[in-house]
Structures are given as structure tokens and as C-alpha cells.
Amino acid sequence: MAWRAALRSKAVIPALLSCSSHGRLCASPTFITQRNNSTSPKIKVDYDQTTGVAVMHMQSPPVNSLSLDFLTELCISLEKLEMDKGCRGLIITSNQPKVFSAGLDILEMYGKSPEHCGEFWKVVQEMWLKLYGSNMVTIAAINGSSPAGGCLLSLTCDYRIMADNPLYSIGLNETQLGIVAPFWFKETMVNTVGHRNTEVALQLGLLYKPAEALKIGLVDQLVPEDQVFSVATQTMTKWLTIPEHARQITKSMMRNPTIDKLRTNREADIQNFVSFITKESIQKSLRMYMEMLKQRKA
Ligand SMILES: CC/C=C\C/C=C\C/C=C\CCC/C=C/C(=O)SCCNC(=O)CCNC(=O)[C@H](O)C(C)(C)COP(=O)(O)OP(=O)(O)OC[C@H]1O[C@@H](n2cnc3c(N)ncnc32)[C@H](O)[C@@H]1OP(=O)(O)O
């Protein structure tokens, strides 16, 4: 697709990168935003110009796995919203039943060439840089399970509201797949729940039920499932009353040390990922995990 090719072209990527944390000051004309509601196959964005709040509905069946195409689309949508001065808040939620996001699409990392894995990892980084460094107020309305990359997506937001349903779980469970959360996943979690909670959670690959997630601060609020979205909207209204420049500078102060670490090491991080994920032993672990998922279903 043209937009996907555009995103990956060398001419466009630097423009996208340059706007991750200060999008309104350095907006590139590449994606001058359309201000009306837009739809796309994997993500639907509803933008209400009167409130300045956009809602991203993830709608990629069956489980909103974060594929290369999904993440590319997410990055483009974010870029457009970030460049729109009127857009001050973003709520991310899922249109799929029972699942917020199943995390990175395992099929993007299994049986793929090093080039493909590198391209995939670059867009995973891009998604994180854009969301963690967003100038907008970002709220995750977590209306389903949210393992691994799904948890990371939630953690990049400023506030997390989760459905109080014990069937759902959230956490960075990478070690259960035989893989390792990279330093920026780890630091995003440390910045949220502290070093000790992260150390235990990451080593054991823990997936927390909502009540446990609330207890360690992995989510900020639990609400009945049918109220997740309305509470997210109310919370957004409250956050938007804070003077914008003061809130944004504070957010940057809290997050920039972690962001800068990845930004200055992107290429090395990609090389590290590619050499790790393409190892035969790691590929075997991924295959076994996918088989386990299928057996669990049967
Ligand atoms: C020295 C080294 C140092 C550092 C390391 C260097 C680099 C880092 C290296 C690696 C880092 C990688 C980081 C990875 C992050 C990730 O996000 S990995 C993905 C982890 N995700 C999961 O574990 C979730 C797995 N899925 C589930 O648990 C469940 O599907 C669900 C709870 C989300 C939903 O349950 P159900 O509604 O019951 O749905 P099903 O389980 O039946 O699934 C339907 C369908 O979807 C397929 N699927 C599920 N998840 C994924 C996925 N993540 N990717 C791809 N496909 C997925 C599932 O297999 C089913 O398929 P079908 O059987 O219908 O074909």
C-alpha cells in the first residue's frame, strides 16, 4: 500500500522521528492531517474536534496482534493526531471482544528473514517512541487481555483503566515465550511499577489479573466492563484541565531519559533484536509457544 511504502521510505522516516516528542513544533508537511474522522482496516480513529479528543479503536481480528501493517498504520494515525494542534487527548481501546491486544504478532518474528525482522522491530520502536513521547494526554481503556506488547502499549499511556473482569490479564510475559523484554520495555515498566515489581514480573513472565495489576500499580483504575470507555472519557476531561505546557514539560521530564536512551541506540537495538530472534533456539521456543496456543484452543 502507498502509505506503508511511504512510511518506510528513507525520506519519510526522519520526518516521523523528528516529531516524536515535540510534534507540534516541528511538524513535517508529509502528513498534514485530515481533521475529520478517518477509518482504516486495522485501526479506526474517531476525532471529536469540539473536545479535542481522539479515540483509537483497534479492530484487527482476532486478537489485535501488533503486526508490521498494524503498527505502521498506528504510527501514521499517531503522526496525524500529533500534528493537529487541536487534538489534545487520545484514548486507545479495542473493538475486539475480550482482548485489548495480544502483543507483538509472533508470526512477524517466526520464520522470517533478518531483513524482515529488522523492519518489524523498527516500527515497534517507532510506535513506542511516538506514544511514550506523545504531547497528547493518552489513556488506555483496557477492555480485555493485554499480554506482552499489548501491556507495553498500555504502559506507554499516561493513565490505564482496565475492565474488572478476572478472565482478563495483563503483563510482560515475554520470558514465558523464551524471549526477553528489551531494555526499553523493562524501563517503561520500572517507571510505572518500580524496580522490584518489575524484576519479579519480568523474570517470571507474570500475567496479572486486574485486581493484582491494580495492587502493583500496573493499571490505575478498575471499573465494570461496560464503564471502561465512559470512565476513560471522564478521566480525559479531568487531565485536560491542567495547563498544557506545564503538563507536557513534566511528562517529558519524567520520560525523556528513557526515550533518549533508545533514540540514541536505535540501530544497535535493531541489530540486537535481529541476532537474538533469528537464533535457532529462539525460533524453536516461538514455534512451541504457538503450538501451545493452538492446543489450548483445541
Ligand atoms: C541478549 C538478549 C537481550 C535482549 C533481547 C533482545 C531483543 C528482544 C527480543 C525479543 C523481544 C520480543 C518482545 C515480544 C513481545 C510480544 O508481544 S510477543 C507476543 C506475546 N503474546 C502473547 O503471549 C499472547 C498470546 N495470546 C494469548 O494469550 C491469547 O491469544 C489471548 C489471551 C490474547 C486471547 O485468547 P483467545 O481469545 O482465547 O484467542 P486465541 O488464543 O484462540 O487466539 C486466536 C488466534 O490468534 C492467534 N494469536 C494469539 N496471539 C497471537 C500473537 N501475539 N501473535 C500472533 N498470533 C496470535 C492464536 O494463535 C489463534 O490463532 P488460530 O489458532 O485462530 O490460527
From TrEMBL:
<keyword id="KW-0413">Isomerase</keyword>
<comment type="pathway">
    <text>Lipid metabolism; fatty acid beta-oxidation.</text>
</comment>
<protein>
    <recommendedName>
        <fullName>Enoyl-CoA delta isomerase 1, mitochondrial</fullName>
        <ecNumber>5.3.3.8</ecNumber>
    </recommendedName>
</protein>
<keyword id="KW-0809">Transit peptide</keyword>
<dbReference type="InterPro" id="IPR018376">
    <property type="entry name" value="Enoyl-CoA_hyd/isom_CS"/>
</dbReference>
<comment type="similarity">
    <text>Belongs to the enoyl-CoA hydratase/isomerase family.</text>
</comment>
<dbReference type="GO" id="GO:0004165">
    <property type="term" value="F:delta(3)-delta(2)-enoyl-CoA isomerase activity"/>
</dbReference>
<comment type="subunit">
    <text>Homotrimer.</text>
</comment>
<keyword id="KW-0443">Lipid metabolism</keyword>
<dbReference type="GO" id="GO:0005759">
    <property type="term" value="C:mitochondrial matrix"/>
</dbReference>
<keyword id="KW-0276">Fatty acid metabolism</keyword>
<comment type="function">
    <text>Key enzyme of fatty acid beta-oxidation. Able to isomerize both 3-cis (3Z) and 3-trans (3E) double bonds into the 2-trans (2E) form in a range of enoyl-CoA species, with a preference for (3Z)-enoyl-CoAs over (3E)-enoyl-CoAs. The catalytic efficiency of this enzyme is not affected by the fatty acyl chain length.</text>
</comment>
<dbReference type="InterPro" id="IPR029045">
    <property type="entry name" value="ClpP/crotonase-like_dom_sf"/>
</dbReference>
<keyword id="KW-0496">Mitochondrion</keyword>
<dbReference type="Pfam" id="PF00378">
    <property type="entry name" value="ECH_1"/>
</dbReference>
<dbReference type="InterPro" id="IPR001753">
    <property type="entry name" value="Enoyl-CoA_hydra/iso"/>
</dbReference>
<keyword id="KW-0007">Acetylation</keyword>
<dbReference type="GO" id="GO:0006635">
    <property type="term" value="P:fatty acid beta-oxidation"/>
</dbReference>
